[in-house]
Design a protein that fits this description.
With about 170 residues, the chain is of the alpha+beta class. The chain has a domain at about 30-75. Strands 1-2-3-4 form a four-stranded antiparallel sheet. Helix 6 (about 100-105) packs across helix 7. The chain has helices at about 5-15, 35-45, 50-60, 65-75, 80-95, 100-105, 110-125, 125-130, 135, and strands at about 20, 155, 160-165, 170. It is about 55% helix and about 10% strand.
């Protein structure tokens, strides 16, 4: 595309984009190699049901050591950290229109209602409300509009799909 045409297209796109407010899920990653391995494996398979004792056997640490590492390096207890990771793993599915039941299964929840409860407890809204205009369309400049606690930003595209840019991952 020629430079003048590109400049015009960028100006139009800039006019069409507007910031939106939303709660996104920041999932801090541990640095210790043992805890980092657990984090990587759970990131790849969020429905993995192993507890800290089982993870400890897999990575050569006790469950208590892993619990201390997760608390010290992420600021979260392992259970809270895993919940955030599981919920974060479902955001692209929900944004693409997957059912809550499919998202719940993907994240390892026994029932959709257990997933909805965890989602609401963590984000303050249900999965259905998360992507509606009532949640996303807070006015620009309002507290938290266009930002998330993890430092990413949210933007609503001209075709009304939601994109989140956080931690180098687009969802």
């Amino acid at each position: 595309m020629a430079a003048p045409a590109r400049a015009r297209a960028e100006a139009v796109l800039s006019d069409l984009l507007r910031p939106v407010g939303a709660t996104t899920l920041r999932v801090p990653m541990p640095r210790d190699p043992r805890a980092a391995r657990v984090a990587r494996e759970l990131g790849a398979h969020p429905s993995d049901p192993r507890d800290l004792a089982e993870w400890g056997q897999a990575v050569g640490a006790s469950g208590r050591t892993l619990a201390r590492l997760f608390r010290a390096e992420t600021g979260l207890a392992f259970g809270a950290w895993r919940t955030r990771l599981r919920l974060q793993a479902t955001l692209p599915m929900l944004a693409a229109g997957s059912t809550v039941a499919a998202a719940a299964r993907h994240a390892g929840y026994a029932t959709p209602s257990a997933f909805v409860s965890a989602f609401r407890r963590t984000t303050g809204v249900s999965p259905g409300a998360y992507f509606t205009s009532a949640v996303l369309a807070s006015p620009p400049g309002s507290p938290g509009a266009g930002e998330d606690p993890g430092g990413g930003r949210m933007a609503k595209r001209a075709d009304d799909r939601v994109e989140s840019h956080s931690g180098g991952r687009t969802i």
